[in-house]
Every structure is written in C-alpha cells, then in structure tokens.
Amino acid sequence: MKRRFIGAMAISCCLVAAMVRGEEPDVKPVKKTFRAADGANIIGEVRGKGETALVFLHGWGGDREYWKNQAAAFAGDYRIVAIDQAGHGESQTGRKESTVAALAADVETVVKDLGLKRVILVGHSMGGPVALAAAKRLPGTVVAVIAVDTLQNAEAKFPAELGAKLLAGMEKDFKGTIRAGFFTGLLPEKADPELAGWLAKKAEAQEPKMAVALMRDIFTLDTAKLLKEAKAPVRCINSGGGYAFFNPTAVEINKKYADFTAVSIDAVGHYPMLEKPEEFNHDLREALKEFAAKR
Asked: Domains of the chain: which residue ranges?
C-alpha cells in the first residue's frame, strides 16, 4: 500500500512539475465520426476538458494534423475538437457540391452533436471564412473566431487572372500543379524544405474535383459580408510577411465590418502554427484570455 501511495505521489508531482514548466499532460484523442446533413461522414478527434471548446479548422488541402502542435498543448484548459473538413483527410465524402457554406454546415453539425455550449472557432486560411459562416449558424454558441493567416483585407479580391490560371492548371493536372511549387510559394525562402513537401503530400491526396470546386468558391467569397454576419469578435494571428502572396492585415478596413484586431508573427509564411508553434501558441493563449468564461 505504501509503495502504491509513493508511486501515485511521484506521478502527481511529475504532472505538476510539467504544468509549472508550461507543458501539458498528455491527453489522448478520441476519434469520432459525425454525420453531416447530406449523410457525409466527417471525421474528427476530441480531447481535453473545459467549459469552452476550441474547434480547429484547417485550410484548403490540409487536415486535422495541421494542429498537431496545438491540440495536446491546449487540452489541459479547453475541450479540443479538430476535424478533417469534408473532402479532406479521412473525411472523403464524395460530396457533389463543395462550398464554404457546406463546410460551415458541417461545423454546426459537429458542435451540436457534441453538445458544445461555448465555442471558439480557430480557422486557418480557408478555415477562417468557414469559421465566420459557422458563427452565423451558431449565434450565442460561438463566442469568438480566431483566424490564422487569413481575412487580411475584407475589401480585397483575389486577382481574377491569377485565379483563373491556377484553377485551369489544377483542372488539367491537379497533382502536377501542386508539385510545381504551390506550397513553396506560401513559405519564406528559409523555411524548412520538408514542410513544403509535407503540405503538398496532404493536398495531393484530396479529390481533385472537390478541391478545385472549393477553391473556385473561395475566390468568390464576400469577406466583408461574412465578417458582418458572423456577429462575433474576430482576432487574427497572421504572418508578418516573408512569402510570395503575403498581404498586410488591413485592421482599420476590417473594423468597419466586425469587432476585429490582429497580431502578426514575423519571419513565417502561411503556416505560423507549423513554422513557429511556440510563438503561435503564446499568441493564441493571449487571444483566448479575452474570452475566458466568467465565473
């Protein structure tokens, strides 16, 4: 009995020591399948505990592993939900129409199926607009949207000529276009070359028709309308520059449409949560403090 007591005390002390050092005890994820309104299966992982849930939404061509440096790190304070959005990762749905609106409906399904009452949506790239559209569908439940390297300027439009060229290339040779440096252009020159390959491999695994249709829809989004209709505070953690398609965050423009603020991380490209996870996690924790549940 004495030996068991000492062993238990040792484990407890290790956990406390880890928390003091800023680490979180390992929380194993539980894999779940959610049934979308059209019958499609959405795969996700749930872990952690807390009154507030963080629902992580990856960008185009990605999957829930985009958040591999955040899920366990925040599970000590929040309930963590990370999903593969329809057509991505394990959620290969075969859906006929792939749109941001459909992905937002999936988020609503996940939130309701889990019975989540207080949610902060964390969306990277495409996940930002998806989060805004989902917030509109979940008034009173979504207390904030935290967008990651996205929503830089509500009034800016993606260059039509560039968009048409990119879509044409993907329709002709999807994998070839991805392999020709699509993700390299989204990272700084000094970025880890293995990261671009890792990102490309995930994107190549997507169903081409779905991926192209979704990208086409993204190019037509009215970001100002999405911000306005979300009716939730929006906090951005964006890149400070250093990659080909970088656009500075137009905070004053975005403030016309929502309660909006932004911080930036220097010397990263389009994937700050993967490129500089420690700095990103610090900024995410700071953003979350504003929305702490009232006791």
From this structure: 28-289
DSSP assignment of 124-145 equals: ETTHHHHHHHHHHHSTTTEEEE
* 100-113 helix and 208-219 helix, angle to the nearest 10 degrees: 100
> Is the torsion defined by CA of 259, 246, 286, 51 positive or negative?
positive
For the chain, the distance separating the N- and C-terminal CA atoms, rounded to the nearest angstrom, is: 39
pTM for the predicted model, two decimal places:
0.90
**Residue appearing with tokens 């998806």:** 130
Q: What is the pLDDT along the chain (295 residues), one digit of tens a residue?
A: 434 433 443 434 433 433 433 444 447 899 999 999 888 999 999 999 899 999 999 999 999 999 999 999 999 999 999 999 999 999 977 777 799 999 999 999 999 999 999 999 999 999 999 999 999 999 999 999 999 999 999 999 989 999 999 999 999 999 999 999 899 999 998 899 899 999 999 999 998 999 999 999 999 999 999 999 999 999 999 999 888 878 899 999 999 999 999 999 999 999 999 999 999 999 999 999 999 977 5
Domain 28-289 CATH assignment equals 3.40.50.970: no
